[in-house]
Design brief:
Layout (H helix, E strand, L loop, with lengths): L11 H10 L4 H14 L4 H8 L5 H8 L14 H4 L2 H6 L11 H7 L6 H11 L6 H5 L7 H9 L3 H14 L4 H19 L1
Helix pairs in contact: 1-2, 10-11, 11-12
Amino acid sequence: MVNHIDIDALTLEELGGVVDIYPWYAGARAEFCRRMSQMGLLTQEQVEQSALYMASRQYFARSLKDRVPEKEVIRDRDVDSQMPLEIIKDRPHVPGGDYFSSEQYRMAQQPQDNIFSKFAVKAREEGYVDHPEAESGEDDFCTETLARIYLEQDYAQKAIEIYSKLSLRYPEKSIYFASLIEEIERKQNNDSI
């Protein structure tokens, strides 16, 4: 036989214990809140916590109506009138951006925050360039298809240059490119005889 709990027969302390042990037991929570509100001890925080476990929050709210003191509600448009003026003037308004002023950011900034920019500055000082081919004006467009086109148009030397670059760019295929270069050179030698 299953033991049931008669929540009406429990004391307030026992009812609080049942709620602590079985937080999802909505009937016990509702009864606990009802009794606390009758005594004038129910706080808004307890109501909000209990409402999380209720199946019908509307029914729960109606059962406690006029028994719980309302929290003071401050709307966004009223915030400026509720805050001291010195806080308001220091708060920048940046839509969609950061809510720190430059001064606040400098105060919160740590020395290790700029570690990557320090590497970039050091690299630039040492002469590192991201794409040296692009800066020197060389066109570095190299593909196997382009090399084949050069071969078909009898530009064998251009094809060999492209295959050499591809061999360096893709070392895993270097044997393949070396065999293509060798075949082109062999054909050139046969044609010249």
